[in-house]
Design a protein that fits this description.
It is a single chain. By secondary structure, the chain is of the alpha/beta class. Among the domains are: about 80 residues, OB fold (Dihydrolipoamide Acetyltransferase, E2P); about 160 residues, P-loop containing nucleotide triphosphate hydrolases (Rossmann fold, 3-Layer(aba) Sandwich). The protein is built from 10 helices and 13 strands. It has a 5-stranded mixed beta barrel with strand order 1-2-3-5-4. A two-stranded antiparallel ribbon has the order 6-7. A hairpin with a 7-residue loop joins strand 6 and strand 7. The longest helix has about 45 residues. The protein starts with 9 loop residues before the first helix and ends with a helix.
Length: about 350
């Protein structure tokens, strides 16, 4: 297998030469779990660990390698490598880290397309689809919606669901399939391009791991059934993993995400809810919040039924989340700046006392 078949590009090679990294080998992170990495090269897979300088120079968690990253490496054992540098990311799918204020979690990097997987039974939720779309639009990743488990409903019900999606989500491909009957798998496989990287996004239990197995033709991922008591999916994939398919496509599976927190996603929200954004230009007030103001073009459109009520409420909720995240980041930076200033003054005072 060549680096190009793993997704390597001329731009990455130029960066490698410009930064004098050509003395190192090149690999791609295919698996990561609590700072334990698996790196794939043209030869084989290695266990990887980052060098101390890379660890101590990192400003935050996003500076560490993530699945999909290209890295400069050196071999120090038959099955082990040191990671010296992370190459620039073409794209990075991120969300607000669960339970951590003002921090982002990288889902995967260097992604071309994202498969947003929703089951047609208990998981179906267009609000959640819009959340995933916002994350994709923020990251400049092309989204494709996949409705799984279509064997559980009839054709009329499926038609109603796809219609409901297309009424709220414009110009995004919607593919329907059944992992059980294999219906739609070939159609999805035909759309996967050689050398392009695809990421699976969705909640636990929607059939992502089974889909990986069906697309690869192998038992690549463990699968499990839905809990009968809670009707919720059990977490099977515990970490992200990159897989090269027989047709040349590159697939990254992810753990199921029950929470899809919105981070700094201004551009993503504008793209996902472009109708609301366009109408806001006609509001009486430039800083209109589209909630209680008079002569609000968005509220008027909602009342006329031109904008779906649920979509409008989903937009407001994500806008509040974005603002909260941004204010948290600003507060965190202010504290760090204040701490830095305090340390600087302390060192200065200590130096003066010594003199």
């Amino acid at each position: 297998m060549t680096l190009e078949e793993l997704g390597y590009t001329e731009e990455l090679e130029n960066y490698r030469k410009d930064r004098d990294l050509d003395a190192f080998d090149v690999g791609r992170i295919i698996s990561e779990h609590k700072e334990r990495y698996v790196v794939r090269t043209t030869i084989k897979e290695y266990d990887g660990e980052i060098i101390g300088n890379l660890r101590f120079s990192a400003q935050n968690r996003s500076d560490f390698p993530a699945v999909g990253d290209w890295v400069a490496i050196s071999t120090y054992d038959d099955h082990k490598v040191l990671i010296h540098a992370v190459f620039p990311r073409k794209t990075s799918i991120e969300r607000h880290a669960v339970g951590k204020h003002g921090e982002k979690q990288i889902i995967a990097t260097n992604i071309d397309y994202a498969f947003i997987v929703q089951a047609v039974d208990r998981d179906f939720n267009i609000n959640r689809i819009e959340r995933y779309l916002t994350i994709c639009n923020t990251s400049n990743v092309k989204p494709i919606i996949i409705l799984s488990k279509i064997d559980l409903i009839n054709d009329v019900e499926l038609s109603n669901l796809t219609t409901a999606i297309r009424e709220r989500v414009k110009q995004i491909p919607v593919i329907t399939l059944s992992n059980k009957s294999q219906d739609g798998i070939d159609s999805l496989n035909d759309q996967i391009e050689k050398g392009k990287t695809y990421c699976l996004l969705g909640s636990s239990g929607v059939g992502k791991s089974t889909l990986v197995n069906n697309l690869s033709g192998k038992e690549m991922m463990k699968t499990n059934t839905i809990s009968a008591s809670s009707n919720k999916g059990r977490h099977i994939t515990s970490h992200r993993e990159l897989i090269v398919l027989e047709n040349g496509g590159i697939l990254i599976d992810n753990p199921g995400m029950r929470e899809v927190g919105i981070a700094d996603s201004a551009d993503g929200l504008e793209t996902t809810f472009n109708t609301i954004v366009e109408l806001s230009e006609y509001c009486k007030f430039k800083d209109c919040t589209h909630t209680t103001e008079i002569d609000c073009a968005v509220l008027a459109a909602v009342e006329r039924g031109e904008i779906d009520q649920s979509s409008y409420e989903n937009y407001l909720k994500m806008e509040r989340e974005k603002e909260h995240f941004e204010s948290t980041v600003a507060e965190k930076r202010k504290k760090n700046k204040g701490f830095g200033k305090m340390m600087k003054n302390y060192k200065k005072t200590t130096k003066m006392k010594r003199n």
